[in-house]
Amino acid sequence: MSEKKAAIIIGAGDATGGAVARRFAKGGYVACVTRRNAEKLDPLLASISAAGGEARGFGSDARDEAQVIELFSTVEREAGPVEVLVFNIGANVNFPIAEMTERVYRKVWEMAALAGFLTGREAARVMTPRGRGTIIFTGATASLRGGPGFAAFAGAKFALRALAQSMARELGPKGIHVAHPIIDGAIDTAFIRDNFPARYALKEQDGILNPEHIAEAYWQIHMQPRDAWTHELDLRPWMETF
Predict the structure, then answer these.
(1) Which helix (H) or strand (E) holds 56?
(2) Where are the alpha helices (DSSP H) in the chain?
(3) Structure pTM?
């Protein structure tokens, strides 16, 4: 067991998170994937196993400090040392500011900012003594600029970006690579297909992001030598405007 290495993917859904898990499993890592509902992970776990990889699924709420601490403890004990953390919780909502409730704003912040802090902190705690590791926080267009109706989402993503920058400056000298890729565009998901058919039609022109290609970029970030680490990069389809 000590020869195995673990990659924790927080928010391993059916698109980007699942693709990241498959890519790291392909690279020889035990893909430790989380969602609040563990049963929803079954298809992903089965696909990784069928491809010859190894994966573990955990029902875990990344907003709950005790659950996050227990997750890292269990993975370190049962799967292997955590070499990679990918934080991939979305929390994308759109509400006019006058209609936004305190509950919505707080929940979005908890999902996209507080959960990032809790999981990033636990990753730092286990990685720092070993002097190595990669922490990747998935960003979005809203990480850089707010838009109409996105006050909650942009506020939370701005906070996550600030967290990533601070952690990179603190942990880089300790051997830990912290990166913040910005996904600037629609992703090939069932949500986009069902709710934005015109945008989804651009898939035929490579006009929306392929989750497998995002995952490959994450893998390459992890593999970078420390004399040429990337902290922030943006991934967008060729036709997406800046």
Answers:
(1) strand 54-59
(2) 16-26, 42-50, 65-78, 102-109, 115-127, 151-171, 190-195, 197-200, 211-223
(3) 0.94
